[in-house]
Specification:
Blueprint (H helix, E strand, L loop, with lengths): L2 H9 L11 H9 L9 E5 L4 H14 L4 E4 L11 E3 L2 E2 L2 H15 L8 H15 L4 E5 L17 E4 L7 H4 L3 H8 L8 E4 L4 H14 L2 E4 L5 E7 L2 E6 L2 E5 L4 H19 L6 H9 L8 E4 L4 E3 L5 H14 L5 E5 L7 H8 L3 E6 L10 H12 L3 E3 L3 H10 L5 E4 L2 H28 L3 H16 L2 H5 L2 E3 L11 H9 L3 E7 L5 E6 L5 E3 L5 E3 L4 E4 L6 E4 L3 E2 L5 E2 L5 H6 L6 E5 L20 E3 L4 E2 L2
Parallel strand pairs: 1-5, 1-6, 2-5, 6-7, 7-8, 13-17, 14-15, 14-17, 15-16, 18-19, 18-24, 24-27, 27-28
Antiparallel strand pairs: 2-3, 3-4, 9-10, 10-11, 12-13, 19-20, 20-23, 21-22, 25-26, 28-29
Helix pairs in contact: 1-4, 2-5, 3-9, 3-10, 4-5, 7-8, 11-12, 12-13, 14-15
Length: about 600
């Protein structure tokens, strides 16, 4: 079975609502040797905050030296992220192998398991094969009848914030929902409870008495906030300072739950130094929870998808941006209480772009427009795709932007964002240089050349790779003439095909042709190839740059691929100050510049 076949098999099995219960999961795991009976767990249920709590807890236990398993849902980017060992996603080939084991047994069952039941079985087999010391297990929905509840008594059963959700399955009151979620409590466990409404706390306390287990209440009043900014929060808890890279007061409440869980684990014999707890919380990585995707322009992604989440987000936005209106990128499922969600966001809204999440249950962007205009009372428009929505939000030039409304939107948005952002910043930087009049471009180019002539790198270089300017780029023609007069070899890029370039030095002044994108380049028939290892110094044109050596190219990527072959060369980007960005988005394949030279500065990191 390949990875693609595994995903196709899993996704063809729907979530079962015809007969809720643990029978299918129990039978499937029995057929697989009951791997869950050989593992130790922390089981986490609740309406909101489960994921953040699980992530902080996993990070702290990993820092304490334990081999951790983490099972969460839904995924944002890849199905593999549901199954993590020490913070690393399951490898696609490993997922395929485990899925094949599960399928062999599932296909023999009279009542075939659902997608989530299959996923849970995959998790148990994987965590056992990887010899996890402890598994942090997030409930999918509810608790009592959720397939994750086939496990034996966990070390700790955790109940996070509870609100009205999935009432058609879990009950139509907080007491009924709390009772359903409290179904994960088993004799032999300890229980940690997030501060909740009295009716929720009374319900959980009654279950604990019946099961004869200890109930521990997380107490955020023991926590004193020190500082808060766009990058996270610091606080003191029982005379020790902590920091989390998550924003919002509700995340402080979640952190107090995690610290209480760690206290309970210590009482049960687990060795968890306070230093490890602090380091783990500080290293938490939990995407789509008021996640800053970019700093300038400010663009956030939040997975809030119900009124409780949106209420917490709205409070966080008012605290972070008390005097600013927000550009919202909204995508919401039709079975959510979306009108209440819009009411909660309306005071912060400056404008809204409506998109369609990738779900059959989604409201389309066009369907969302009318209630947005009616309830939020601000300018709104629809976008046909997530990519178009990101572009429109950026082009409003009114940050901060907050994308919110559905986890089904979050993954697609995170995937699309880097490309759209780079296109937006490229256009912005190019506009900056094109607004310079020709006289200024010549004046500034001459200043840049004069600066280069004074550098040690130019003085020592024997072979230089440079370029011929197009589209209002910095002109280095005078530099080329001076270099050649001093006996240096000047080579220029030649585009061989859609992905490849090489460096060539023309044999005579007329040995040129018009190459790709209208760029003047040496004619291969009248020029000599210069090997990458021969080049001492490279001058890179760019669309935009940042002060730390980050560079956005023109988009084709010829230079970016070629630079990797020039290991011994010094690499300078040249640009006008008008092309400067606070930060240039760098991908793993990008090469940082050794310096960026403009008419005003030499930037080197």
């Amino acid at each position: 079975m390949t990875y693609e076949e595994a995903i196709e098999y899993i996704e063809t099995k729907t979530w079962s609502t015809t007969r809720l219960g643990l029978e299918r999961t129990t039978e499937l795991l029995e057929r697989l040797g009951d791997p869950q009976k050989q593992l130790r767990f922390i089981h986490v249920a609740g309406s909101n905050g489960k994921g953040s709590t699980c992530s902080m807890l996993e990070s702290a236990l990993r820092q304490a030296g334990y081999r951790t398993g983490l099972y969460t849902s839904p995924h944002l980017m890849s199905f593999c992220e549901r199954f993590q060992i020490n913070g690393e996603w399951i490898r696609p080939e490993a997922l395929a192998a485990v899925t094949e084991q599960v399928r062999e047994q599932a296909e023999q069952m009279e009542d075939h398991p659902s997608q989530f039941e299959i996923s849970t079985a995959i998790a148990m087999l994987h965590f056992l094969s990887e010899q996890c010391d402890i598994v942090i297990l997030e409930v999918g929905m509810g608790g009592e009848l959720d397939s994750t509840n086939v496990i034996p008594a966990p070390e700790v059963a955790v109940i996070t914030n509870i609100g009205l959700e999935h009432t058609e399955y879990l009950g139509d009151s907080l007491e009924k929902i709390a009772a359903t979620k409290g179904g994960i409590i088993k004799t032999g466990s300890d229980v940690v409870l997030y501060p909740n409404r009295p009716e929720v706390e009374d319900t959980i306390a009654a279950i604990c008495r019946r099961k004869q287990v200890m109930l521990y209440h997380a107490d955020p009043s023991l926590l004193t906030e020190r500082s808060s900014d766009l990058y996270g929060q610091s606080f003191v808890y029982q005379n020790r300072e902590y920091r989390i890279p998550l924003t919002g007061k509700y995340q402080l409440f979640n952190a107090s739950v995690v610290l209480k869980i760690l206290e309970v684990l210590r009482l049960r014999g687990w060795t968890i130094p306070e230093e490890s707890a602090a380091a783990g919380l500080a290293a938490t990585n939990w995407p789509a929870r008021m996640e800053m995707l970019w700093e300038e322009p400010l663009f956030f992604l939040d997975g809030g998808h119900n009124p409780q989440c949106i209420e917490a987000l709205a409070g966080n936005l008012k605290e972070l941006f008390p005097k600013k209106k927000i550009t919202f990128l909204l995508g919401i499922l039709g079975d959510k209480d979306y009108r209440q969600m819009l009411e909660l966001l309306k005071d912060s809204a400056g404008s809204v772009i409506c998109v369609t999440p990738n779900s059959s249950r989604a409201l389309t962007g066009e369907e969302l427009l009318q209630p947005v205009r009616e309830i939020m009372g601000c300018p709104a428009e629809a976008a046909d795709t997530i990519e178009e929505g990101i572009r429109k939000a950026l082009e409003t030039e009114k940050p901060p932007v907050v994308a919110v409304g559905s986890l089904y939107m979050a993954g697609e948005l995170r995937s699309a964002f880097p490309k759209v952002l780079k296109q937006y910043l490229r256009r912005k930087a190019i506009r900056g240089r094109e607004q310079l009049d020709p006289e200024k471009r010549k004046e500034y180019s001459d200043r840049i050349v004069d600066t280069i002539l004074q550098t040690e790198e130019f003085a020592c270089a024997k072979t230089i790779l440079s370029y011929h300017a197009v589209r209002a780029e910095v002109s280095l023609e005078r530099l080329h003439q001076i270099a050649e007069s001093r006996g240096k070899t000047i080579a220029y890029p030649v585009c061989l095909d859609s992905e490849t370039m090489e460096a060539r030095s023309p044999d005579h002044p007329e040995a040129y042709r018009t190459g790709a994108f209208g760029i003047r380049e040496p004619d291969p028939n009248c020029s000599s190839v210069i090997m990458p290892e021969e080049i001492d110094l490279i001058f890179c044109p760019c669309a935009g740059f940042d002060p730390h050596g980050g560079r956005i190219g023109m988009g084709a990527g010829y230079y970016d691929r070629y630079l990797k072959r020039c290991g011994n060369s010094r690499i300078f980007a040249v640009a006008f100050e008008a092309q400067k960005l606070k930060k240039a988005p760098m991908e793993d394949t990008d090469i940082s510049m050794d310096a960026v030279i403009t008419e005003e500065n030499i930037y080197s990191d």
